[in-house]
Design goal:
By secondary structure, the chain is α+β, with helices and mostly antiparallel strands. The protein is built from 4 helices and 8 strands, in the order E-H-H-E-E-E-E-E-E-H-H-E. Helix content is 29%, strand content 17%.
Length: 203
């Protein structure tokens, strides 16, 4: 971790901003309930991803009907602290925007794991990937089986390997709408990035 800043730059697109805004609005209405708990977990997860204290839960793979997300990672979130994690945060690792900069983590979606319009459908839609097609450019990440059972050490080894691939992969670029999220002020986009016009993200 760097001495004067986060280890990773967090970037978000306009659609993730909508996810964040919806969760924030729900949390304001129910601060002590599931919505408030979920929103606090999300903000903590974003901070941990920036600081490098977490690398997410596990790498994703390809499955027909759920899409090719071999360059993506999922993190677990709970709306009920006493129940299993029912939400997922999906993000991608990518190299720095400029030589000498910190690598980036692009947040793609935060949604329920299951049900209509679940997290993986939303992620594929945002990446403009067909749910039934492989992405040939992602062959560099291997061919992970979605049902693969791993222990924590195996998951971490896979995350480390995929991160190294992503940081060296020329095709790994953020969505056109993605902009840096300033870690010193959650809820706003940075306005000091060259060529970017900041927009407010509601907390």
């Amino acid at each position: 971790m760097t001495e004067d800043g986060p280890r990773y730059e967090i970037v978000v697109g306009k659609e993730f901003a909508v996810d964040l805004r919806r969760l924030a609005v729900a949390a304001e209405k129910d601060p002590r309930g599931p919505a408030g708990h979920l929103h606090r977990q999300l903000l903590t997860q974003i901070s941990d991803l920036a600081n490098g204290t977490t690398d997410g839960h596990h790498a994703l793979g390809y499955e027909s009907g759920k899409g090719d997300l071999r360059d993506c990672v999922t993190a677990y979130l709970q709306s009920d602290p006493q129940a299993k994690a029912d939400y997922r945060l999906v993000f991608r690792e990518m190299p720095p925007a400029e030589p000498g900069g910190v690598p980036r983590r692009e947040l793609l979606a935060v949604k329920p794991r299951q049900g209509a319009g679940n997290i993986y459908e939303h992620t594929c839609a945002r990446l403009r990937r067909n749910l039934h097609d492989r992405q040939p450019g992602l062959d560099a990440f291997g061919d992970r089986r979605p049902s693969l059972k791993q222990n924590q050490a195996q998951r971490q080894a896979e995350l480390d390997g995929n991160r190294a691939i992503a940081h060296a992969f020329p095709g790994q670029v953020p969505l056109a709408t993605s902009r840096p999220l300033a870690m010193f002020r959650f809820g706003t986009r940075r306005t000091d990035a060259p060529g970017h016009h900041g927009k407010v993200l509601d907390r």
